[in-house]
Predict the structure.
Amino acid sequence: MGGPPEFGGFSNVDASGAPEGYAGYLDAVRDVGAVAEWKERSFALLEPRPGAVLLDVGCGTGDDVRALAPRVAPGGRVIGIDASAAMIEEAHRRGAAEGVELRVGDATRLDLSDDAVDGARSERTLQHLDRPEAAVTEMVRVVRPGGWVVLAEPDWATLVVDPCDPALGRELARSASERVRSGTVGRRLRGMLVAAGLADVGVAARVLLVSDVVRARLLFDLDGALERAVAAGRVARGDADSWRSDVDRAAEEGRHLAAMTAFMAWGRVPLRPRPRRSGTLAARQHLTDQGW
Ligand SMILES: C[S@@+](CC[C@H](N)C(=O)[O-])C[C@H]1O[C@@H](n2cnc3c(N)ncnc32)[C@H](O)[C@@H]1O
């Protein structure tokens, strides 16, 4: 693919006029080994088994839906929902598979009845919502008691780059987090699941390290973030140009590095009625902080 798409456009891919750029970006992210492992971990947390019905909210090109389908066969189903008709069309184009169901739909208003599925995941989608809590409430509503809700999101404010002047680095991370609607949702995942009354809440964090500067520029859209900071008057054009030269030189000498923290949180839907026990001892006892 060429350069990265405007990340804010993930909130409405159909209005972007260039959905293939968004699909291509998702493929580029999926190619990163660490991301593939992260996805596997989220799949395992759903405890897929034959006959189960699972849900992927904000499924994009449907690759995760297709990856999960064999794990619920025979007799199971994986439902992928995405707000973008173009993404769902692309997901269909990538091939039908047994047990795969793809639908256009809004994460904050799921067209599913209460307790309709055995487990639900959402990856890198809550960052694109104004009110991620609304999507979490919906996921909790449609998962049956005892089923898992699994969330995985980046936290763009944790973006760091070397080489970079510290002040410019802060602006880079700020711009990166402000270009999407909820750029710092990653750090809030655990709290949202506790607030939603889930049991056995756990959280893990992983730092995505990228030393290949071409890949870092694509995955994190470093240049786009910097341009936003320049446009907002927070970084001088000359400083931005110097930064680009510094990064090019560092890349030539093999000493460039970019990194960002991603979070994953999971919790089990309790038996109804679902109490709100935000911050209770029970919820805290089940916290399993895990670095990677
Ligand atoms: C960064 S992509 C992640 C796709 C996929 N989960 C993956 O890991 O490859 C975010 C997806 O969320 C979708 N999306 C954005 N807002 C949405 C909403 N309100 N409801 C459902 N999907 C939404 C976008 O269309 C896009 O496909």
In short: The radius of gyration is 19 Å. The pocket of S-adenosylmethionine is lined by residues 10-11, 13, 26, 58-60, 64, 82-84, 87, 106-108, 123-125, 128-129 (CB under 6 Å). The mean pLDDT is 93.
